[in-house]
């Protein structure tokens, strides 16, 4: 193996797929068959990593600078706006950087997740999932996700469970090919869940907390297992590290920027334009982004460090498996040190990480055992009335990272196509709150009052947007 091949982990979601990145003029992806999470297989996003890792330069107010100077300027602006600074990371970087980030940003720390709205005793269950081998061993699996679209490498585990005799129930907006039974989200009360069931849902900054509470209550009441999948490479690491920290939700952050109490936002390995409206970001005096690949948001300062695959450090996947990134540099950590006015030493942070995770060594072939204490009864609010027609955003790796994808269509049912007299090869008009857009469509086994989109189309108001549709 030459020096320019990195054994690394895909940053597309928290599944933790291993791969090689080869720097050979252009970037290339190679399969890593020895990876215990994915045995070398990758989804479309994993294969798109050369596009994801588009280079970025450090800048201050649009002017190119050295990384160190950009970090110094960021430090100046952050200390000049004390009391109105927020620190945001969706957990898309090493556990060691996330620990340094916590020390830097404890005055206003945001991972986007809405833990405040969940009972404290559910924290660990939501934060860390169960081993993938337990998914393969389950007798009955209840999916509250679209595995093909959102967490593609889990499909192999589900098929393996099915081959061993598991029944798969999908609670989704359309029929999923691998399911033995398809139940509509509105019919969730008809589900037969027992202690032999395993519920698979997901948890992310745009999760509907009532939905999260409702699946937790379903599992609790039946004595079933539950596991949550997550979208960012180290979401689990971030949640495990920050379990005693005060975290703000994404909604709270957006509100605080809108009302002017937060004027400076520092984002670590997170492009805020993917999740925060442009008009909100434009109210900031300083948007500072420290990142390892091209950023879409209009940042006042960009601190461009190494891409994730070159970093030294660890990631924790959905199962709680701790995986080493194959890189050797710590530029990101050094930049955080300049901003904090402290020296963050990698080895010290790494030891703290191991202590917090309860491990003595990083071994990707071992999944540590995590305590998931039982949680009390959960009151889930009654379901709000469903909109007549809704656009459902199916959050997938391309959507989370604003990476262009070729699925530029919405899915709708054949009944809807007939009712609207849509023409083959034509478009559909979708209106919401005075905004209108024309989209190509594709017929799928979707509910009649639902449009599914795996790509942002510009009129969304969260995961479920009431819309009017016409020809
Ligand atoms: S499933 Fe997730 S981690 Fe695996 S290749 Fe796809 S995006 Fe990357």
Global mean pLDDT:
94
Number of helices: 16
Uncertain stretches: none
Backbone structural class: alpha/beta
Secondary-structure map:
Elements: E1 5-9, E2 18-24, E3 26-31, H1 44-47, H2 49-52, E4 59-60, E5 63-64, H3 67-80, E6 85-88, H4 95-104, E7 109-112, H5 123-127, H6 132-136, E8 140-143, H7 147-150, H8 154-163, E9 167-171, E10 181-183, E11 197-202, H9 209-222, E12 225-229, H10 235-241, E13 247-249, H11 250-258, E14 264-268, H12 278-281, E15 286-291, E16 301-304, E17 312-316, E18 322-326, H13 331-340, H14 346-357, E19 390-393, H15 397-400, E20 409-412, H16 414-419, E21 427-432, E22 435-443, E23 450-453, E24 464-466, E25 468-470
Parallel strand pairs: 6-7, 6-14, 7-13, 8-9, 8-11, 9-10, 11-12, 14-15, 15-16, 19-23, 20-22
Antiparallel strand pairs: 1-2, 2-3, 4-5, 4-16, 17-18, 19-24, 21-22, 21-25
Helix pairs in contact: 3-13, 4-13, 4-14
Characterize the structure shown.
The protein has 471 residues and is α/β, with parallel strands linked by helices. It folds into three domains: 5-50; 56-382, Rossmann fold, CATH 3.40.50; 390-470, Barwin-like endoglucanases (Beta Barrel), CATH 2.40.40. The strands form six sheets. An eight-stranded mixed β-sheet has the order 5-4-16-15-14-6-7-13. A five-stranded parallel β-sheet has the order 10-9-8-11-12. A four-stranded mixed β-sheet has the order 20-22-21-25. Strand 11 (197-202), helix 9 (209-222) and strand 12 (225-229) form a beta-alpha-beta unit. Helix 4 runs parallel beside helix 13. The model has no long low-confidence stretch (mean pLDDT 94). The protein binds iron/sulfur cluster. The site of iron/sulfur cluster has 14 residues, from helix 1.
């Amino acid at each position: 193996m030459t020096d320019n091949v990195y054994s690394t982990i895909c940053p597309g979601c928290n599944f933790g797929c291993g791969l090689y990145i080869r720097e050979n003029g252009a970037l290339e992806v190679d399969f890593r068959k020895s990876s215990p999470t994915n045995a070398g297989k990758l989804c479309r996003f994993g294969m798109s990593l050369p596009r994801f890792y588009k280079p970025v330069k450090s800048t201050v107010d649009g002017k190119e600078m050295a990384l160190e100077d950009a970090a110094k300027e960021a430090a100046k602006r952050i200390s000049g706006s004390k009391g109105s600074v927020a620190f945001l990371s969706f957990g898309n970087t090493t556990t060691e950087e996330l620990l340094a980030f916590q020390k830097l940003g404890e005055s206003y720390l945001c991972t986007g997740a809405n833990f405040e709205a969940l009972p404290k005793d559910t924290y660990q269950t939501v934060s860390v999932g169960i081993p993938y081998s337990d998914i393969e061993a389950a007798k009955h699996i209840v999916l509250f996700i679209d595995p093909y679209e959102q967490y593609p490498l889990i499909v192999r585990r589900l098929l393996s469970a099915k081959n061993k005799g598991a029944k798969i129930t999908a609670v989704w907006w359309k029929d999923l090919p691998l399911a033995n039974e398809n139940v509509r989200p509105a019919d969730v009360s008809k589900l037969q869940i027992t202690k032999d069931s395993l519920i698979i849902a997901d948890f992310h900054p745009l999760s509907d907390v009532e939905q999260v509470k409702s699946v937790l209550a379903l599992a609790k009441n039946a004595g079933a297992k539950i596991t949550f999948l997550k979208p960012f490479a180290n979401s689990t690491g971030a949640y495990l590290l920050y379990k005693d920290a005060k975290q703000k939700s994404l909604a709270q952050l957006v509100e605080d920027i809108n009302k002017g109490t937060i004027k400076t936002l520092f984002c670590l390995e997170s492009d805020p334009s993917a999740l925060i409206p442009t008009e909100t970001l434009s109210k900031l005096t300083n948007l500072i982004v420290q990142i390892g690949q091209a950023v879409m948001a209009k940042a006042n300062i960009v601190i461009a460090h190494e891409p994730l695959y070159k970093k030294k450090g660890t990631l924790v996947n959905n199962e709680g498996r701790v995986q080493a990134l194959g890189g050797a540099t710590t530029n990101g950590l050094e930049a955080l040190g300049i901003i904090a006015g402290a020296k963050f030493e990698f080895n010290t942070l790494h030891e703290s990480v191991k202590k917090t995770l309860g491990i003595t060594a990083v071994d990707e072939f071992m999944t540590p055992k995590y305590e998931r204490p039982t949680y009390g009864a959960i009151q889930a609010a009654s379901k709000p009335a469903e909109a007549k027609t809704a656009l459902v955003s199916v959050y997938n790796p391309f959507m989370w990272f604003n990476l262009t994808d070729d699925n530029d269509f919405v899915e709708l049912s054949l009944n809807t196509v007939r009712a609207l007299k849509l023409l083959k090869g034509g478009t559909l008009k979708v209106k919401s709150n005075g905004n209108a857009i024309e989209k190509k469509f594709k017929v799928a086994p979707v509910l009649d009052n639902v449009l599914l989109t795996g790509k942002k189309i510009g009129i969304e108001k969260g995961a479920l947007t009431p819309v009017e549709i016409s020809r």
